[in-house]
């Protein structure tokens, strides 16, 4: 049995840029501060992880629960507004590749995203990637990407696995995969890795990286 996990923003959905902008704007709305788009200097590159670090850095920790709820509400509203006015595209080949994997009896598929679950589902639906039967673990579950991936692994529910592969597009995806001993495949051109696909149109290459 092969476990295949997928990040969402920039990996399955062309949403990395607008998601980043909506997140920055939501923090500006609530806290009145501007944060840069380079997530690499944050310890946990997830919505809840980044926000917790921003709150802590500002000394607002005692009020973190209220602030988190307000930022999340503003963020979800901004994402919904963006989706209502713009087409959201899947990464080329993602729909067919996911469908093919789900048809295989020796493959378990799950989503493991650093975004909150509500926004993840909005973006997947907007891109036409409505796979309601696929388990999802997200920043709503934990601030740590490795813990999110572990949870997605458990929710896939078909262990033990002969292999575990994570498709992602960021250096934090690669780092988490290495920490967990997962086979990592980068998607797109944001990072370089030994195993890389531009998108999912070359199905044979993507399957080969999984070991199928």
Automatic annotation (TrEMBL):
Q: What is its pathway? A: Organic acid metabolism; glycolate biosynthesis; glycolate from 2-phosphoglycolate: step 1/1
Q: Which GO terms describe its molecular function?
A: hydrolase activity
Swiss-Prot/TrEMBL catalytic activity: 2-phosphoglycolate + H2O = glycolate + phosphate
Per its UniProt record, what InterPro entries does this chain match?
HAD-like_hydrolase_sf, HAD-like_sf, HAD_sf, PGP-like_dom2
Which Gene3D superfamilies does the record associate with it? Answer: HAD superfamily/HAD-like (3.40.50.1000), Putative phosphatase, domain 2 (1.10.150.240)
One Pfam family hit: Hydrolase
Q: Which domain of life is it from?
A: Bacteria
Keywords from the UniProt entry? Carbohydrate metabolism, Hydrolase, Metal-binding
Top-level EC class: hydrolase
Q: Which family does it belong to?
A: Belongs to the HAD-like hydrolase superfamily. CbbY/CbbZ/Gph/YieH family.
Q: What is this protein called?
A: phosphoglycolate phosphatase
This chain's source organism reads Marinobacter xestospongiae
